[in-house]
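agent> Task received from the user: take the single chain below, predict its 3D structure, and emit structure tokens. No templates, no multimer pairing.
agent> Plan: (1) validate residues, (2) run structure prediction, (3) serialize to tokens, (4) report one or two observations.
agent> Step 1 OK, no nonstandard residues flagged.
tool_call: predict_structure(input=
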Amino acid sequence: MQNNRPENMEEVLRKAEVLIEALPYIQKFNRKIIVVKYGGSAMSNEELQKNVIKDVTLLKLVGFKPIIVHGGGKEISRWVGKVGKESQFVNGLRVTDAETMEIAEMVLNKVNKSLVTMVQELGVRAVGVSGKDGGLLGVDKKYADGQDIGFVGNIKEVNSKVLYDLLEKDFLPIVAPVGLDDDFQTYNINADDAACAIAKAVGADKLVFLTDIEGLYKDVNDKSSFISRLTAGQAEELIGGGFIGGGMLPKLSNCTSAIRNGVNRVHILDGRIPHCLLLEIFTNQGIGTAIVREDEE
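)
tool_result: status=success, residues=297
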């Protein structure tokens, strides 16, 4: 006769409580679209990379409709260095000449298919596309404060039908941020911009930025000034008041733009924390910064 009673009943009950806590969120977001912008350290660390992919795959399996938009910044810089060039940035945007554009597209396609493989290893069907496929991302030339930074694209249109068709057929779309202009010239696109434009176009319920910071601080030097939740209007006040600077400024501007254009909620999460995506979405406490509409306050 076997005794299968668990040695640590408390731990088993705790796991059950976690599942129960997640239930209302699973019900609320069933069949809702969530766009996850994936980059930073979480992408360069293999263990964190697997955790993120597991999280997104779980979201898919419990009824969400996730779309991954990925960058490739650090990997692109590494390959640019291999050919003897030095990466240059203006206002956080990579200066992209023809040779750098060729390298960026090569690296982004490599990253894209690597992520597709990881998702499919977990039993979910994924399709990797670049913004060139099916005219997904149409762009014109982007300037940084009037400065010509080469083949960097500003998204002017999103062919959301490409993504809707993939979601309808039960695929998980994984998007590389490359696009075409009206003359079919290839352009590199900032991954944050791409994720924001796609979230607006598909009417995403959530847009999540996986970053290398814990979330938003009113004063980046004061850890007690962490903001776990704010409205789009409050975010705009922070921007206007000069509280937000550096790389967070364009990111937060993208967040408020998404909210103003129909996305219900935007999350800024620390991608270095294992399973941060699940902790933010499926627990009452959450761990990052959530930006919400005024009527949700």
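agent> Step 4: summary for the user.
The first strand starts at residue 33 and ends at 38.
agent> Done.
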